From TrEMBL:
Organism: Streptomyces capillispiralis
Reaction equations catalysed: adenosine + H2O + H(+) = inosine + NH4(+); 2'-deoxyadenosine + H2O + H(+) = 2'-deoxyinosine + NH4(+)
Alphabetical keyword list: Hydrolase, Metal-binding, Nucleotide metabolism, Zinc
Gene behind the chain: add
Residues holding substrate: H22, D24, G181
Gene3D superfamilies: Metal-dependent hydrolases (3.20.20.140)
Binding site for Zn(2+): H20, H22, H208, D298
GO molecular function: 2'-deoxyadenosine deaminase activity; adenosine deaminase activity; zinc ion binding
GO CC entries: cytosol
Active site, UniProt feature: E211 (proton donor)
Keyword Metal-binding: yes
EC numbers: 3.5.4.4
Record-given protein name: Adenosine deaminase
Cofactor note: Binds 1 zinc ion per subunit.
């Protein structure tokens, strides 16, 4: 059956939930230009439109290491309290404008201390900026709730220290932990001390795995480290020899049967070479096989994307329906690092009624 076309305004107004989105990968180009001028950092170009295009081109090399290298410029302007306050506030307002009702934003505090801020000062500034953004979004009639994930960098040795920071701020808006950075050559188990500590403190965490490295990375993240979600996870298909037949290997079966959320980011995966097309991205086949897939942006500036754009690409190129979009949104809320009653309330009071309301008032072409 051919999926009905859904107009762009309807897609924008659909309630959305994003679990995998990096703060330092989502700055507004104009803001990056202004902040770079303030701190004396040289950018590839000072024209905001040209800078946005440069990011997409540079990140689209098919190389995860080069993709990560584009963050040099955003991080350069996120070393001061003022820079962090502004980028965090604008982050929330941009989510609200995109129809996001729940988001989890992640960043690595250790990468934002070159200007003299301490790790706690970095977190305090980001939380203050996020709170300001949420207050403004609510006042504008587009409320959005944003939780924070703190990342340890997997190629460095401060993950245990960042885990302490998560525990210290878990009652101040920090909802979980992650490790980020180049995946290949830096296995999750290298940071087992941090994960063991967090499990003992009842703190949830996700792990980037199955993007640049395959099944061993996913297996370690789940069975050795104890991750509750997997960042990306596209390589789980290596354990499904025939996606059409749907016969799962034991690891893939574990992921599906235990409802472990996969934080999938189609456009980003095309840029890093983890997938070769939107139409052929594993998110569609895995959704159809009953995996708990979620749809995410990863880095909105670097990938030149939004949640509305990610939805539109799947509708236009992979035949997704409104029901498919609702499924991944519900999956994301169910897998959010929020208490059970708060997840249920978000679904009951915001997401499901929002879908019903938008669809009732929106014509389809």
């Amino acid at each position: 059956m051919t999926a009905p076309r859904i107009d762009a305004d309807t897609l924008r107004r659909l309630p959305k939930a994003v679990l995998h989105d990096h703060l330092d990968g989502g700055l507004r180009p104009a803001t990056l230009v202004e902040l770079a001028d303030t701190v004396g950092h040289t950018l590839p170009t000072t024209d905001p439109d040209a800078l946005a295009a440069w990011y997409v081109e540079a990140a689209g090399s098919g190389d995860l290491v080069r993709y990560i290298g584009t963050f040099e410029h955003t991080l350069a302007v996120m070393q001061t309290r003022e820079g962090l306050l502004r980028t965090a506030e604008e982050y929330v307002l941009d989510l609200a404008a995109d129809g996001v009702v729940y988001g989890e934003v992640r960043y690595a505090p250790e990468l934002m201390t070159r200007g003299g801020l301490t790790l706690p000062e970095v977190v305090e500034a980001v939380q203050e900026g996020l709170a300001a953004g949420m207050a403004k979004a609510a006042a504008a009639g587009t409320p959005v709730r944003v939780g924070t994930l703190l990342c340890g960098m997997r190629m460095f040795d401060r993950t245990r220290e960042i885990a302490d920071l998560v525990v210290a701020f878990r009652d101040a808006g920090v909802v979980g932990f992650d490790i980020a950075g180049a995946e290949d050559g830096f296995p999750p188990a290298d940071h087992l001390a941090a994960f063991t500590y967090l499990r003992g403190e009842n703190v949830p965490f996700t792990i980037h795995a199955g993007e640049a490295h395959g099944l061993p990375s996913i297996h370690q993240a789940l069975q050795v480290c104890g991750a509750q979600r997997i960042g990306h996870g596209v390589r789980i298909t290596d354990d499904i020899p025939d996606l059409g037949a749907g016969k799962l290997g034991r690891l893939a079966g574990w992921v599906r049967d235990r409802r472990i959320a996969l934080e999938m980011c189609p456009t980003s995966n095309l840029q890093t070479g983890a997938a070769d097309s939107i139409a052929g991205h594993p998110i569609t086949a895995l959704k159809d096989l009953g995996f708990r897939v979620t749809l995410n942006t990863d880095n909105r500036l670097v990938s030149g994307t939004t949640m509305t754009r990610e939805m539109s690409l799947l509708v236009e190129q992979a035949g997704w329906t409104v029901e498919d979009l609702r499924t991944v949104t519900v999956n994301a809320v169910k897998s959010a690092f929020l208490p059970f009653d708060e997840r249920n309330a978000l679904l009951r009071d915001v997401v499901l009624p929002g879908y019903t309301s938008v669809l009732r008032t929106s014509p389809r072409a």
